[in-house]
Amino acid sequence: MTIWEVLLLVVVTGGIMPLSAMVDALNLRLQFTLRYAYTYEVIDIYASLTPSQRRDSSTIDEVQAAHDSIPFNLSWQATSALNIIGAFTTAVLLFSSLANLDLLAAVLVTLSLLPQLFGYSLVAKAENFYWPKQAASSRRAEYLENQLRYARSGTELSVLNGAGQFANWAKAKHEIVRGYWIKIMSIRFTSAFVSGLAALILIAGALSSLIWRSQVPTDMLAAAILGVVSAMLATKSAGSAYGELMASAPIVMRYLKLRNMLKVNAESNSVTQALEAPGKAETLIQCQDVDFAYSEQDGTVLKDLSLEVESGKIVAIVGANGAGKSTAIKVLTGQLKPQNGNVYSRLGVSEVAIMPQDIEKFELTIREFLSLPYYHNQLPSDEQLWLVLEKVDLAGHVRGLPNGLDTQLGEQWDGTDLSGGQWQRLALARTLLSDAKLLVLDEPTSSVDAESESKLFQMLKSETPERSVLLVSHRAWTLRYADKIYLLEDGNLVQSGAFETLKDQEGPFRKLFESQDWSHK
Ligand SMILES: Nc1ncnc2c1ncn2[C@@H]1O[C@H](COP(=O)(O)OP(=O)(O)OP(=O)(O)O)[C@@H](O)[C@H]1O
Protein backbone atom coordinates (compact mmCIF):
# COMPACT_ATOMS: atom_id res chain seq x y z
CA MET A 1 0.00 0.00 0.00
CA THR A 2 1.26 3.45 -0.82
CA ILE A 3 1.07 6.28 1.72
CA TRP A 4 -1.70 7.86 -0.37
CA GLU A 5 -3.79 4.69 -0.29
CA VAL A 6 -3.39 4.49 3.48
CA LEU A 7 -4.32 8.13 3.78
CA LEU A 8 -7.44 7.61 1.64
CA LEU A 9 -8.41 4.61 3.78
CA VAL A 10 -8.00 6.70 6.94
CA VAL A 11 -10.12 9.51 5.49
CA VAL A 12 -12.85 7.11 4.30
CA THR A 13 -13.06 5.01 7.47
CA GLY A 14 -12.51 7.86 9.91
CA GLY A 15 -14.66 10.26 7.90
CA ILE A 16 -17.83 8.15 7.84
CA MET A 17 -18.90 9.02 11.38
CA PRO A 18 -18.50 12.81 11.14
CA LEU A 19 -19.99 12.70 7.65
CA SER A 20 -23.09 10.89 8.87
CA ALA A 21 -23.33 13.33 11.81
CA MET A 22 -23.14 16.20 9.32
CA VAL A 23 -25.83 14.60 7.16
CA ASP A 24 -28.02 14.21 10.28
CA ALA A 25 -27.54 17.88 11.12
CA LEU A 26 -28.45 18.90 7.57
CA ASN A 27 -31.50 16.62 7.73
CA LEU A 28 -32.58 18.27 10.96
CA ARG A 29 -32.07 21.69 9.43
CA LEU A 30 -34.22 20.69 6.47
CA GLN A 31 -36.90 19.41 8.86
CA PHE A 32 -36.92 22.71 10.74
CA THR A 33 -37.07 24.75 7.54
CA LEU A 34 -40.12 22.75 6.44
CA ARG A 35 -41.60 22.84 9.93
CA TYR A 36 -41.61 26.64 10.03
CA ALA A 37 -42.77 26.94 6.41
CA TYR A 38 -45.79 24.73 7.24
CA THR A 39 -46.37 26.53 10.55
CA TYR A 40 -46.55 29.92 8.79
CA GLU A 41 -48.90 28.47 6.23
CA VAL A 42 -51.22 27.08 8.92
CA ILE A 43 -51.14 30.49 10.66
CA ASP A 44 -52.22 32.03 7.35
CA ILE A 45 -54.95 29.38 7.03
CA TYR A 46 -56.25 30.27 10.51
CA ALA A 47 -56.18 33.96 9.55
CA SER A 48 -58.06 33.41 6.30
CA LEU A 49 -60.97 31.41 7.76
CA THR A 50 -64.34 33.04 7.17
CA PRO A 51 -66.73 33.45 10.13
CA SER A 52 -68.84 30.53 8.91
CA GLN A 53 -65.76 28.30 8.51
CA ARG A 54 -64.80 29.17 12.08
CA ARG A 55 -68.20 27.98 13.26
CA ASP A 56 -67.81 24.64 11.49
CA SER A 57 -66.11 22.34 13.98
CA SER A 58 -65.20 19.72 11.35
CA THR A 59 -63.27 22.36 9.36
CA ILE A 60 -61.51 23.56 12.50
CA ASP A 61 -60.68 19.94 13.43
CA GLU A 62 -59.11 19.44 9.98
CA VAL A 63 -56.96 22.55 10.45
CA GLN A 64 -55.98 21.31 13.92
CA ALA A 65 -55.04 17.89 12.46
CA ALA A 66 -52.81 19.66 9.93
CA HIS A 67 -51.35 21.82 12.72
CA ASP A 68 -50.67 18.76 14.91
CA SER A 69 -49.05 16.80 12.10
CA ILE A 70 -46.46 19.50 11.32
CA PRO A 71 -43.76 18.41 13.78
CA PHE A 72 -44.35 14.72 13.03
CA ASN A 73 -45.35 14.07 9.46
CA LEU A 74 -45.35 17.15 7.32
CA SER A 75 -41.79 18.24 8.05
CA TRP A 76 -40.35 14.71 7.76
CA GLN A 77 -41.31 14.32 4.11
CA ALA A 78 -38.13 15.53 2.48
CA THR A 79 -35.73 13.77 4.88
CA SER A 80 -37.63 10.48 4.48
CA ALA A 81 -37.30 10.75 0.72
CA LEU A 82 -33.57 11.47 1.05
CA ASN A 83 -33.14 8.54 3.47
CA ILE A 84 -34.83 6.19 1.03
CA ILE A 85 -32.52 7.24 -1.79
CA GLY A 86 -29.46 6.81 0.45
CA ALA A 87 -30.59 3.48 1.85
CA PHE A 88 -31.46 2.02 -1.53
CA THR A 89 -28.10 3.04 -2.96
CA THR A 90 -26.38 1.22 -0.07
CA ALA A 91 -28.63 -1.80 -0.52
CA VAL A 92 -27.89 -2.01 -4.26
CA LEU A 93 -24.13 -1.69 -3.69
CA LEU A 94 -24.19 -4.41 -1.03
CA PHE A 95 -26.33 -6.63 -3.21
CA SER A 96 -23.84 -6.44 -6.09
CA SER A 97 -20.82 -7.14 -3.89
CA LEU A 98 -22.62 -9.98 -2.04
CA ALA A 99 -23.85 -11.44 -5.34
CA ASN A 100 -20.19 -12.02 -6.32
CA LEU A 101 -19.83 -14.39 -3.36
CA ASP A 102 -23.29 -16.00 -3.29
CA LEU A 103 -26.27 -14.96 -5.45
CA LEU A 104 -28.87 -16.74 -3.27
CA ALA A 105 -27.59 -14.95 -0.13
CA ALA A 106 -27.73 -11.61 -1.93
CA VAL A 107 -31.32 -12.28 -3.06
CA LEU A 108 -32.41 -13.39 0.45
CA VAL A 109 -30.86 -10.31 2.06
CA THR A 110 -32.65 -8.08 -0.45
CA LEU A 111 -35.93 -9.92 0.12
CA SER A 112 -35.58 -9.26 3.85
CA LEU A 113 -36.47 -5.67 2.99
CA LEU A 114 -40.01 -6.62 2.00
CA PRO A 115 -41.57 -7.59 5.36
CA GLN A 116 -40.49 -4.23 6.77
CA LEU A 117 -41.93 -2.32 3.83
CA PHE A 118 -45.18 -4.21 4.23
CA GLY A 119 -45.19 -3.64 8.01
CA TYR A 120 -44.59 0.08 7.65
CA SER A 121 -47.40 0.34 5.08
CA LEU A 122 -49.75 -1.01 7.75
CA VAL A 123 -48.39 1.47 10.31
CA ALA A 124 -48.90 4.29 7.81
CA LYS A 125 -52.51 3.25 7.31
CA ALA A 126 -53.09 3.18 11.06
CA GLU A 127 -51.51 6.63 11.51
CA ASN A 128 -53.72 8.09 8.82
CA PHE A 129 -56.76 6.56 10.42
CA TYR A 130 -56.00 7.90 13.90
CA TRP A 131 -54.55 11.36 13.09
CA PRO A 132 -57.79 13.15 12.27
CA LYS A 133 -59.53 11.34 15.14
CA GLN A 134 -57.28 12.85 17.77
CA ALA A 135 -57.67 16.39 16.38
CA ALA A 136 -60.95 17.21 18.19
CA SER A 137 -59.52 16.16 21.58
CA SER A 138 -56.23 17.89 20.87
CA ARG A 139 -58.09 21.12 20.00
CA ARG A 140 -60.12 20.89 23.19
CA ALA A 141 -56.99 20.23 25.27
CA GLU A 142 -55.30 23.24 23.65
CA TYR A 143 -58.33 25.44 24.39
CA LEU A 144 -58.42 24.38 28.06
CA GLU A 145 -54.67 24.83 28.42
CA ASN A 146 -54.78 28.28 26.81
CA GLN A 147 -57.43 29.41 29.28
CA LEU A 148 -55.01 28.50 32.06
CA ARG A 149 -52.08 30.11 30.25
CA TYR A 150 -53.61 33.51 29.41
CA ALA A 151 -53.49 35.99 32.26
CA ARG A 152 -57.08 37.23 31.94
CA SER A 153 -58.82 33.85 31.81
CA GLY A 154 -56.25 32.25 34.12
CA THR A 155 -56.88 34.90 36.78
CA GLU A 156 -60.65 34.41 36.50
CA LEU A 157 -60.17 30.66 36.87
CA SER A 158 -57.99 31.13 39.96
CA VAL A 159 -60.55 33.50 41.50
CA LEU A 160 -63.31 31.02 40.70
CA ASN A 161 -61.21 28.26 42.20
CA GLY A 162 -61.65 26.48 38.88
CA ALA A 163 -58.04 26.36 37.61
CA GLY A 164 -57.48 22.85 39.00
CA GLN A 165 -60.62 21.60 37.28
CA PHE A 166 -59.48 23.11 33.97
CA ALA A 167 -56.14 21.38 34.43
CA ASN A 168 -57.94 18.07 34.99
CA TRP A 169 -60.10 18.52 31.91
CA ALA A 170 -57.05 19.46 29.81
CA LYS A 171 -55.16 16.40 31.04
CA ALA A 172 -58.18 14.16 30.36
CA LYS A 173 -58.28 15.39 26.74
CA HIS A 174 -54.52 14.92 26.41
CA GLU A 175 -54.99 11.38 27.73
CA ILE A 176 -57.37 10.67 24.84
CA VAL A 177 -54.72 11.93 22.40
CA ARG A 178 -52.08 9.84 24.19
CA GLY A 179 -54.43 6.85 23.86
CA TYR A 180 -54.35 7.24 20.08
CA TRP A 181 -50.56 7.45 20.18
CA ILE A 182 -50.36 4.28 22.26
CA LYS A 183 -52.55 2.50 19.68
CA ILE A 184 -50.27 3.66 16.88
CA MET A 185 -47.18 2.64 18.85
CA SER A 186 -48.64 -0.83 19.58
CA ILE A 187 -49.26 -1.32 15.88
CA ARG A 188 -45.68 -0.15 15.21
CA PHE A 189 -44.37 -2.63 17.80
CA THR A 190 -46.36 -5.58 16.43
CA SER A 191 -45.40 -4.71 12.89
CA ALA A 192 -41.72 -4.40 13.83
CA PHE A 193 -41.84 -7.74 15.67
CA VAL A 194 -43.54 -9.70 12.85
CA SER A 195 -41.58 -8.12 10.01
CA GLY A 196 -38.36 -8.40 12.03
CA LEU A 197 -38.98 -12.11 12.54
CA ALA A 198 -39.62 -12.63 8.83
CA ALA A 199 -36.50 -10.65 7.96
CA LEU A 200 -34.49 -12.69 10.49
CA ILE A 201 -35.50 -15.96 8.81
CA LEU A 202 -34.45 -14.60 5.42
CA ILE A 203 -31.13 -13.33 6.79
CA ALA A 204 -30.56 -16.69 8.50
CA GLY A 205 -31.17 -18.34 5.11
CA ALA A 206 -28.64 -15.96 3.52
CA LEU A 207 -25.98 -16.77 6.15
CA SER A 208 -26.61 -20.52 5.88
CA SER A 209 -26.22 -20.30 2.14
CA LEU A 210 -22.93 -18.41 2.55
CA ILE A 211 -21.55 -20.90 5.06
CA TRP A 212 -22.80 -24.26 3.83
CA ARG A 213 -23.84 -23.85 0.20
CA SER A 214 -21.16 -21.57 -1.19
CA GLN A 215 -18.49 -22.72 1.26
CA VAL A 216 -17.08 -19.21 1.36
CA PRO A 217 -13.54 -19.21 2.88
CA THR A 218 -13.43 -18.02 6.52
CA ASP A 219 -11.64 -14.73 5.82
CA MET A 220 -14.23 -13.90 3.14
CA LEU A 221 -17.04 -15.09 5.44
CA ALA A 222 -16.16 -12.47 8.03
CA ALA A 223 -16.40 -9.78 5.32
CA ALA A 224 -19.65 -11.31 4.02
CA ILE A 225 -21.25 -11.29 7.52
CA LEU A 226 -20.21 -7.69 7.88
CA GLY A 227 -21.83 -7.05 4.52
CA VAL A 228 -25.06 -8.81 5.58
CA VAL A 229 -25.21 -6.83 8.84
CA SER A 230 -24.68 -3.57 6.90
CA ALA A 231 -27.36 -4.63 4.43
CA MET A 232 -29.73 -5.22 7.34
CA LEU A 233 -29.03 -1.76 8.70
CA ALA A 234 -29.49 -0.25 5.25
CA THR A 235 -32.75 -2.07 4.63
CA LYS A 236 -33.96 -1.11 8.09
CA SER A 237 -33.48 2.60 7.45
CA ALA A 238 -35.00 2.20 3.98
CA GLY A 239 -38.02 0.49 5.59
CA SER A 240 -38.55 3.17 8.21
CA ALA A 241 -37.96 6.01 5.76
CA TYR A 242 -40.42 4.39 3.39
CA GLY A 243 -42.86 4.04 6.29
CA GLU A 244 -42.51 7.70 7.23
CA LEU A 245 -43.09 8.69 3.64
CA MET A 246 -46.10 6.39 3.39
CA ALA A 247 -47.50 7.83 6.62
CA SER A 248 -46.96 11.43 5.68
CA ALA A 249 -47.95 11.31 2.01
CA PRO A 250 -51.73 11.00 2.65
CA ILE A 251 -51.48 13.63 5.42
CA VAL A 252 -49.78 15.99 2.97
CA MET A 253 -52.49 15.20 0.39
CA ARG A 254 -55.16 15.87 2.98
CA TYR A 255 -53.42 19.08 3.92
CA LEU A 256 -53.30 20.26 0.30
CA LYS A 257 -56.98 19.34 -0.10
CA LEU A 258 -57.84 21.36 3.02
CA ARG A 259 -55.90 24.35 1.68
CA ASN A 260 -57.76 24.25 -1.63
CA MET A 261 -61.13 23.61 0.03
CA LEU A 262 -60.72 26.64 2.30
CA LYS A 263 -59.71 28.82 -0.64
CA VAL A 264 -62.77 27.77 -2.68
CA ASN A 265 -65.11 28.14 0.32
CA ALA A 266 -63.72 31.57 1.16
CA GLU A 267 -64.53 32.70 -2.37
CA SER A 268 -68.02 31.21 -2.47
CA ASN A 269 -68.71 32.08 1.14
CA SER A 270 -67.98 35.76 1.07
CA VAL A 271 -69.23 37.39 4.26
CA THR A 272 -71.21 40.19 2.70
CA GLN A 273 -72.96 39.84 -0.59
CA ALA A 274 -73.09 43.13 -2.40
CA LEU A 275 -76.48 42.59 -4.00
CA GLU A 276 -78.60 45.38 -5.26
CA ALA A 277 -81.37 46.16 -2.81
CA PRO A 278 -84.70 45.96 -4.55
CA GLY A 279 -86.35 48.52 -2.29
CA LYS A 280 -85.97 52.26 -2.00
CA ALA A 281 -82.79 53.98 -3.16
CA GLU A 282 -82.01 55.06 0.40
CA THR A 283 -82.07 51.48 1.74
CA LEU A 284 -78.54 50.34 2.62
CA ILE A 285 -79.22 46.83 3.85
CA GLN A 286 -82.42 44.88 4.05
CA CYS A 287 -83.68 41.42 4.87
CA GLN A 288 -86.95 40.02 3.59
CA ASP A 289 -88.97 37.10 4.97
CA VAL A 290 -85.90 35.62 6.63
CA ASP A 291 -86.01 32.36 8.58
CA PHE A 292 -82.86 31.43 10.40
CA ALA A 293 -81.85 28.44 12.54
CA TYR A 294 -78.30 27.78 13.78
CA SER A 295 -78.86 24.09 13.07
CA GLU A 296 -81.76 21.77 12.39
CA GLN A 297 -81.99 20.56 15.99
CA ASP A 298 -81.72 24.11 17.44
CA GLY A 299 -85.02 25.34 16.05
CA THR A 300 -85.83 28.58 14.26
CA VAL A 301 -84.32 31.71 15.85
CA LEU A 302 -85.61 34.28 13.33
CA LYS A 303 -89.06 33.84 11.87
CA ASP A 304 -90.19 35.52 8.67
CA LEU A 305 -88.19 38.60 9.58
CA SER A 306 -88.13 41.68 7.35
CA LEU A 307 -86.30 44.86 8.26
CA GLU A 308 -84.20 47.52 6.63
CA VAL A 309 -81.62 50.18 7.42
CA GLU A 310 -81.94 53.44 5.58
CA SER A 311 -79.07 55.71 4.71
CA GLY A 312 -78.28 58.39 7.27
CA LYS A 313 -80.54 56.92 9.98
CA ILE A 314 -80.04 55.30 13.37
CA VAL A 315 -81.91 52.02 13.48
CA ALA A 316 -82.27 50.08 16.73
CA ILE A 317 -83.19 46.47 17.33
CA VAL A 318 -84.61 45.81 20.78
CA GLY A 319 -86.01 42.81 22.61
CA ALA A 320 -85.52 40.59 25.64
CA ASN A 321 -82.52 38.31 26.12
CA GLY A 322 -82.46 35.61 23.48
CA ALA A 323 -85.04 37.34 21.26
CA GLY A 324 -82.68 37.09 18.27
CA LYS A 325 -81.21 40.62 18.07
CA SER A 326 -77.57 39.64 17.61
CA THR A 327 -78.61 36.90 15.21
CA ALA A 328 -80.61 39.42 13.16
CA ILE A 329 -77.56 41.70 12.98
CA LYS A 330 -75.34 38.82 11.87
CA VAL A 331 -77.83 37.81 9.17
CA LEU A 332 -78.17 41.41 7.98
CA THR A 333 -74.42 41.87 7.73
CA GLY A 334 -73.91 38.57 5.92
CA GLN A 335 -72.15 36.76 8.78
CA LEU A 336 -74.88 34.12 8.85
CA LYS A 337 -76.77 32.71 5.88
CA PRO A 338 -80.54 32.41 6.35
CA GLN A 339 -82.30 29.18 5.38
CA ASN A 340 -85.19 31.11 3.79
CA GLY A 341 -85.64 34.65 2.60
CA ASN A 342 -83.24 37.19 1.14
CA VAL A 343 -80.66 39.62 2.42
CA TYR A 344 -79.75 42.60 0.27
CA SER A 345 -76.94 45.07 0.64
CA ARG A 346 -75.74 48.06 -1.30
CA LEU A 347 -72.52 48.13 0.71
CA GLY A 348 -69.19 46.43 0.15
CA VAL A 349 -67.32 44.71 3.00
CA SER A 350 -65.21 47.79 3.78
CA GLU A 351 -68.28 50.01 3.97
CA VAL A 352 -69.63 48.23 7.04
CA ALA A 353 -67.84 48.45 10.40
CA ILE A 354 -69.03 45.95 13.00
CA MET A 355 -68.59 46.10 16.76
CA PRO A 356 -69.68 42.74 18.20
CA GLN A 357 -71.44 42.31 21.51
CA ASP A 358 -68.59 40.59 23.32
CA ILE A 359 -65.54 42.50 22.22
CA GLU A 360 -62.23 40.69 22.61
CA LYS A 361 -59.76 42.47 24.86
CA PHE A 362 -56.72 42.06 22.59
CA GLU A 363 -53.63 42.84 24.60
CA LEU A 364 -51.79 45.06 22.12
CA THR A 365 -50.70 48.66 22.39
CA ILE A 366 -53.57 51.18 22.15
CA ARG A 367 -52.30 52.21 18.71
CA GLU A 368 -52.19 48.58 17.52
CA PHE A 369 -55.64 47.87 18.96
CA LEU A 370 -57.15 50.83 17.13
CA SER A 371 -55.23 50.29 13.89
CA LEU A 372 -55.93 46.54 13.68
CA PRO A 373 -58.22 46.66 10.60
CA TYR A 374 -55.88 48.95 8.68
CA TYR A 375 -52.57 47.07 8.52
CA HIS A 376 -53.12 46.02 4.91
CA ASN A 377 -53.94 49.63 4.12
CA GLN A 378 -52.69 52.98 5.26
CA LEU A 379 -52.28 53.15 9.01
CA PRO A 380 -54.21 55.92 10.76
CA SER A 381 -52.24 59.01 11.79
CA ASP A 382 -51.81 60.10 15.43
CA GLU A 383 -54.22 62.91 14.70
CA GLN A 384 -56.92 60.48 13.53
CA LEU A 385 -56.34 58.25 16.55
CA TRP A 386 -56.63 61.14 19.02
CA LEU A 387 -59.76 62.36 17.25
CA VAL A 388 -61.64 59.07 17.70
CA LEU A 389 -60.38 58.82 21.28
CA GLU A 390 -61.83 62.30 21.87
CA LYS A 391 -65.12 61.13 20.36
CA VAL A 392 -65.43 58.25 22.82
CA ASP A 393 -64.15 60.43 25.68
CA LEU A 394 -61.04 58.35 26.26
CA ALA A 395 -58.37 60.79 25.08
CA GLY A 396 -57.86 62.24 28.56
CA HIS A 397 -57.24 58.81 30.07
CA VAL A 398 -54.86 57.73 27.29
CA ARG A 399 -52.89 60.98 27.61
CA GLY A 400 -52.32 60.13 31.26
CA LEU A 401 -50.88 56.69 30.43
CA PRO A 402 -47.08 56.28 30.51
CA ASN A 403 -46.60 55.83 26.76
CA GLY A 404 -49.77 57.45 25.44
CA LEU A 405 -50.92 55.74 22.24
CA ASP A 406 -48.07 53.24 22.53
CA THR A 407 -49.04 52.04 25.98
CA GLN A 408 -49.17 48.26 26.14
CA LEU A 409 -52.44 46.75 27.33
CA GLY A 410 -52.38 43.66 29.52
CA GLU A 411 -50.49 43.18 32.77
CA GLN A 412 -48.92 39.93 31.55
CA TRP A 413 -46.91 42.06 29.09
CA ASP A 414 -45.97 44.57 31.81
CA GLY A 415 -48.74 46.75 30.45
CA THR A 416 -51.76 48.43 31.92
CA ASP A 417 -55.40 47.40 32.02
CA LEU A 418 -58.61 49.26 31.29
CA SER A 419 -61.99 49.15 32.98
CA GLY A 420 -64.83 47.27 31.26
CA GLY A 421 -66.40 50.50 30.03
CA GLN A 422 -63.04 51.84 28.83
CA TRP A 423 -62.42 48.68 26.79
CA GLN A 424 -65.85 49.10 25.25
CA ARG A 425 -65.14 52.74 24.39
CA LEU A 426 -61.80 51.77 22.87
CA ALA A 427 -63.55 49.19 20.66
CA LEU A 428 -66.14 51.80 19.70
CA ALA A 429 -63.31 54.17 18.77
CA ARG A 430 -61.84 51.47 16.50
CA THR A 431 -65.21 51.12 14.75
CA LEU A 432 -65.53 54.89 14.35
CA LEU A 433 -62.02 55.13 12.91
CA SER A 434 -63.11 53.39 9.73
CA ASP A 435 -64.70 55.43 7.00
CA ALA A 436 -67.51 52.86 6.80
CA LYS A 437 -70.91 54.16 5.76
CA LEU A 438 -72.69 51.88 8.18
CA LEU A 439 -71.72 51.30 11.81
CA VAL A 440 -73.17 48.12 13.27
CA LEU A 441 -73.02 48.23 17.05
CA ASP A 442 -74.26 45.34 19.18
CA GLU A 443 -74.86 46.82 22.64
CA PRO A 444 -71.89 49.21 22.34
CA THR A 445 -72.44 50.87 25.72
CA SER A 446 -73.60 48.00 27.95
CA SER A 447 -70.64 48.51 30.35
CA VAL A 448 -70.52 52.31 30.07
CA ASP A 449 -71.85 54.54 32.87
CA ALA A 450 -75.02 56.55 32.23
CA GLU A 451 -73.34 59.92 31.78
CA SER A 452 -70.76 58.61 29.32
CA GLU A 453 -73.47 56.67 27.53
CA SER A 454 -75.47 59.84 27.02
CA LYS A 455 -72.43 61.59 25.50
CA LEU A 456 -71.70 58.60 23.27
CA PHE A 457 -75.24 58.56 21.88
CA GLN A 458 -75.09 62.29 21.17
CA MET A 459 -71.81 61.66 19.38
CA LEU A 460 -73.37 58.83 17.34
CA LYS A 461 -76.25 61.09 16.40
CA SER A 462 -73.76 63.68 15.17
CA GLU A 463 -72.17 61.05 12.88
CA THR A 464 -75.45 60.97 10.95
CA PRO A 465 -76.54 61.62 8.25
CA GLU A 466 -73.07 61.05 6.70
CA ARG A 467 -73.07 57.63 8.32
CA SER A 468 -75.82 55.25 9.33
CA VAL A 469 -76.00 53.23 12.51
CA LEU A 470 -77.60 49.87 13.20
CA LEU A 471 -77.54 49.07 16.89
CA VAL A 472 -78.85 46.83 19.59
CA SER A 473 -79.68 48.49 22.89
CA HIS A 474 -81.26 47.52 26.16
CA ARG A 475 -81.67 51.01 27.61
CA ALA A 476 -84.98 52.70 26.92
CA TRP A 477 -83.79 56.29 26.98
CA THR A 478 -80.96 55.68 24.46
CA LEU A 479 -83.63 54.73 21.95
CA ARG A 480 -84.69 58.39 21.78
CA TYR A 481 -81.82 58.80 19.35
CA ALA A 482 -83.12 56.09 17.02
CA ASP A 483 -85.00 57.03 13.87
CA LYS A 484 -86.55 53.59 13.69
CA ILE A 485 -86.93 50.82 16.24
CA TYR A 486 -87.65 47.16 15.59
CA LEU A 487 -88.86 45.06 18.50
CA LEU A 488 -88.20 41.32 18.37
CA GLU A 489 -89.94 38.75 20.52
CA ASP A 490 -88.79 35.17 20.25
CA GLY A 491 -87.47 35.77 16.71
CA ASN A 492 -90.63 37.50 15.49
CA LEU A 493 -90.91 41.17 14.63
CA VAL A 494 -93.76 42.32 16.90
CA GLN A 495 -93.59 46.11 16.71
CA SER A 496 -91.70 48.77 14.80
CA GLY A 497 -91.74 52.53 14.43
CA ALA A 498 -90.32 55.78 15.78
CA PHE A 499 -89.47 56.11 19.50
CA GLU A 500 -92.16 58.67 20.32
CA THR A 501 -94.86 56.60 18.62
CA LEU A 502 -93.89 53.34 20.30
CA LYS A 503 -93.50 55.02 23.69
CA ASP A 504 -97.03 56.33 23.61
CA GLN A 505 -98.58 53.12 22.31
CA GLU A 506 -99.89 50.36 24.53
CA GLY A 507 -97.95 47.28 23.45
CA PRO A 508 -94.86 45.11 23.83
CA PHE A 509 -92.44 48.08 23.54
CA ARG A 510 -93.95 49.87 26.53
CA LYS A 511 -94.09 46.59 28.41
CA LEU A 512 -90.45 45.74 27.71
CA PHE A 513 -89.22 49.07 29.04
CA GLU A 514 -91.85 49.83 31.68
CA SER A 515 -89.43 49.38 34.55
CA GLN A 516 -86.89 51.76 32.97
CA ASP A 517 -86.50 55.49 33.13
CA TRP A 518 -87.51 56.88 29.72
CA SER A 519 -86.41 60.41 30.25
CA HIS A 520 -82.85 60.00 31.57
CA LYS A 521 -80.65 62.91 30.47
N1 LIG B 1 -74.21 29.80 17.84
C1 LIG B 1 -75.43 29.48 18.26
N2 LIG B 1 -75.89 28.22 18.11
C2 LIG B 1 -77.12 27.88 18.52
N3 LIG B 1 -78.00 28.73 19.09
C3 LIG B 1 -77.60 30.00 19.26
C4 LIG B 1 -76.30 30.43 18.86
N4 LIG B 1 -76.20 31.75 19.16
C5 LIG B 1 -77.37 32.12 19.71
N5 LIG B 1 -78.21 31.06 19.77
C6 LIG B 1 -79.59 31.08 20.26
O1 LIG B 1 -80.34 31.93 19.41
C7 LIG B 1 -81.27 32.68 20.16
C8 LIG B 1 -81.10 34.16 19.88
O2 LIG B 1 -79.82 34.56 20.34
P1 LIG B 1 -79.27 36.03 20.13
O3 LIG B 1 -77.87 36.08 20.61
O4 LIG B 1 -79.56 36.48 18.75
O5 LIG B 1 -80.22 36.82 21.14
P2 LIG B 1 -80.18 38.34 21.61
O6 LIG B 1 -81.54 38.87 21.39
O7 LIG B 1 -79.06 39.06 20.97
O8 LIG B 1 -79.93 38.14 23.16
P3 LIG B 1 -79.14 39.07 24.24
O9 LIG B 1 -79.99 40.25 24.55
O10 LIG B 1 -79.04 38.17 25.42
O11 LIG B 1 -77.83 39.44 23.64
C9 LIG B 1 -81.06 32.32 21.62
O12 LIG B 1 -82.06 31.39 21.98
C10 LIG B 1 -79.70 31.67 21.64
O13 LIG B 1 -79.66 30.67 22.61
UniProtKB/TrEMBL annotation:
It comes from the Bacteria. Residues 285-515 form the ABC transporter domain. PROSITE patterns: ABC_TRANSPORTER_1, ABC_TRANSPORTER_2. Pfam families: ABC_tran (PF00005). This is ABC transporter domain-containing protein. Keywords: ATP-binding, Membrane, Nucleotide-binding, Transmembrane, Transmembrane helix. The keyword Transmembrane applies. SMART domains: AAA. Coiled coil: none annotated. The chain crosses the membrane at residues 6-26, 81-98, 104-123, 192-212, 224-253. InterPro entries: AAA+_ATPase, ABC_transporter-like_ATP-bd, ABC_transporter-like_CS, P-loop_NTPase, Type_1_exporter. GO terms for molecular function: ABC-type oligopeptide transporter activity; ATP binding; ATP hydrolysis activity.
